[in-house]
User: Which sequence fits this backbone?
């Protein structure tokens, strides 16, 4: 009997450790919350985890007792009465209490996080549109359009309007709030107040096609001043390049198929199928996190678009090394 106990103990403990490591081992983690909204979700998780630990310890203790203690010398009648009571308490009353606590806690948090609970308009409004497979980010009050990077000011309520015209995506920044879907034909909202400066990674959390796994984004929580500077920098049109290489890149960009899909403010490129590139040089990644935004990363993306991100809507554009060099010089200079 004893080895049955130890085997059960071993399996259960391993499962517990694996589950715990999966939940908090990788970054970003919803267990390091940096907004009141994310904190309420993390608190609910800890409450459930504590109850699970309690149940685990009690069950293991009972199992140990059952496998090691010699049967008590009691009448059949008494044993049956004890067993019946044990089933009622352990199988109905205790689980009922646990489920009751969980229900109250989760419904309470869900209500608090529900957009309907927020009557007042948030001071910062952003629209995020899910594309295949990147994020179009629009600040309608400020005339700023960017992609895959969302800047927000610290300690201010942010209201992100979520839309999609293709399939369902889901925006998730675990350290700032729970997931919220972007559903075609519907407008959803995600609201949070970030209370820590920094860079927070986000993911698409709903399978949306072949490149779902490469649909990342970053939320930058800036100080009020940095946020204002970022807005004014990104509101302006692209500066005209002064290096000959970059000037050649601009001519090539405007005269080729690039301009049909991308906008660069202040130039004749006004396509909207792909990300706005007016300030692409100031972003940290390309193609929603598929490559780092460095001259090498940009060159790799232009040289082998479909190899870097197979299935991406951007077709393989055939360019010579010289053309790639000029385009990289131009695009990386757009800050
Ligand atoms: Cu978008 Cu998954």
Assistant:
């Amino acid at each position: 009997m004893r080895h049955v106990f130890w085997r059960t103990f071993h399996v259960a403990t391993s499962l517990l450790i694996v589950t715990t490591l999966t939940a908090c081992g990788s970054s970003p983690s919803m267990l390091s919350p940096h907004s009141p909204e994310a904190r309420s979700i993390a608190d609910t998780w800890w409450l459930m985890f504590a109850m699970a630990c309690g149940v685990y310890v009690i069950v293991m203790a009972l199992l140990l007792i059952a496998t090691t203690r010699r049967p008590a010398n009691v009448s059949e009648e008494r044993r049956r009465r004890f067993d019946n009571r044990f089933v009622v308490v352990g199988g109905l009353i205790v689980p009922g209490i646990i489920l009751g606590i969980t229900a109250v806690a989760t419904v309470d948090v869900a209500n608090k996080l529900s957009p309907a609970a927020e009557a007042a308009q948030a001071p910062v409004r952003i629209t995020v549109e899910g594309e295949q497979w990147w994020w179009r980010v629009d600040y309608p009050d400020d005339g700023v359009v960017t992609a895959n990077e969302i800047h927000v000011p610290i300690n201010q309520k942010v209201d992100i309007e979520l839309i999609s015209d293709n399939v369902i995506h889901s925006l998730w920044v675990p350290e700032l709030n729970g997931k919220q879907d972007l559903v075609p034909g519907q407008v959803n909202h995600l609201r949070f107040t970030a209370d820590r400066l920094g860079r927070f990674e986000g993911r698409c959390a709903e399978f949306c096609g072949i490149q779902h796994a490469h649909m990342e984004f970053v939320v930058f929580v800036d100080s009020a001043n940095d946020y204002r500077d970022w807005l004014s920098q990104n509101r302006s049109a692209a500066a005209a390049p002064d290096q000959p290489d970059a000037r050649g890149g601009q001519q090539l960009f405007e005269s080729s198929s690039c301009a049909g899909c991308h906008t660069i403010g202040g130039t004749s490129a006004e396509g909207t199928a792909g990300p706005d590139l007016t300030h692409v040089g100031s972003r940290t990644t390309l193609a929603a996190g598929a490559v780092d935004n460095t001259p090498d990363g940009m060159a790799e993306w232009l040289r082998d678009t479909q190899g870097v991100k197979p299935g991406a809507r951007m077709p393989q554009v055939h360019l010579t090394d010289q053309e790639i060099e000029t385009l990289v010089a131009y695009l990386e200079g757009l800050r």
In short: The chain has three domains: 2-113, 124-213, 244-332. The chain has a mean pLDDT of 90. The longest strand covers residues 124-131.
